[in-house]
């Protein structure tokens, strides 16, 4: 009998799924970690656990403490659920452009949500800076009462993915993996998994799939901090270099447009039964590109980051998709017509 004793014990060891259509189209085995099967519904449960366990070990986080984070939503959900299981209050500072579904999820959990306008990172009103300032204010009044998780620059993020996510991928493929493809927001997943796989075999290709508008792909390819276009994807891409991203051993990078990635996630749902979010479409698009670059017979691993119903009002809304010039599949029109 196997029994998980708490929320944290159920995080990780997600299934590795063969993506049938992508594999058949490329002649490669394209596999994806089903991170939507984590108890909080996303890969960010892993990030939250790594950050919290590290802070507890270092004495930065104690019972009764308030956890504060700036997040696009999923890390906040993971922190809130872990916090509920360990006796922490959670405050989330979040851009007001994020999906209504994620905002409502956090509110149901009793999270104190502070929605702020989208501004550049250099602006003191940027959501991550507001979260950090809140923690500093609380700690000035009552030392040790608050902890700022700092997912973008806290190395505990990538360290957890290196020790766990990367090791899982290696073990689940019996070491027969030729490439790993992932988007980056904080950079923790691609940095941690990349380091774990490269340590085991240096020839494994690590590739970045970046949404349009983000600077990461430009930085990898040219060293320039330039983003072009926009994307409806949430929680991935960035306008600045994070400490976690800078640790990632990336060999290749692509900027993936929405009209390439969103049809892929629609097909994953309609043909293979996987209802996943926008970042998953970007990841699979990148995996297909890497498979075509390497040629048939290779094994490529990527990540299905979270569930699609967290973005129902965008990804499965024909009117919204048409407004963004993204193709609408006929079955979606029929279903909602």
Q: Could you characterize what this model shows?
A:
- The protein is α/β, with parallel strands linked by helices and 337 residues long.
- 44% of the residues lie in helices and 15% in strands.
- The protein is built from 14 helices and 10 strands.
- The chain has helices spanning 20-26, 44-57, 74-86, 100-108, 127-141, 156-172, 188-200, 216-222, 243-246, 258-272, 278-294, 312-315, 318-323, 330-336; strands spanning 16-18, 29-34, 66-70, 89-95, 112-116, 146-148, 179-182, 205-211, 252-256, 299-304.
- It has a 6-stranded mixed sheet, sandwiched between helices.
- α10 (258-272) crosses α11.
- The relative contact order is 0.15.
- The model has no long low-confidence stretch (mean pLDDT 96).
Q: Which terms summarize this structure?
A:
single chain, 337 residues, alpha/beta, 6-stranded mixed sheet, 4-stranded parallel sheet, 44% helix
Provide a short characterization of the protein structure.
The chain is of the alpha/beta class.
Largest sheet: 6 strands, mixed
H/E order of the elements?
Answer: EHEHEHEHEHEHEHEHHEHHEHHH
Low-pLDDT sequence parts: none
Q: Could you estimate the helical fraction of the residues in percent? A: 40-55%
Q: Which structural class should the secondary elements be placed in?
A: alpha/beta
Write the layout of secondary structure elements.
Blueprint: E1 16-18, H1 20-26, E2 29-34, H2 44-57, E3 66-70, H3 74-86, E4 89-95, H4 100-108, E5 112-116, H5 127-141, E6 146-148, H6 156-172, E7 179-182, H7 188-200, E8 205-211, H8 216-222, H9 243-246, E9 252-256, H10 258-272, H11 278-294, E10 299-304, H12 312-315, H13 318-323, H14 330-336
Parallel strand pairs: 2-10, 3-4, 3-6, 4-5, 7-8, 7-10, 8-9
Antiparallel strand pairs: 1-2
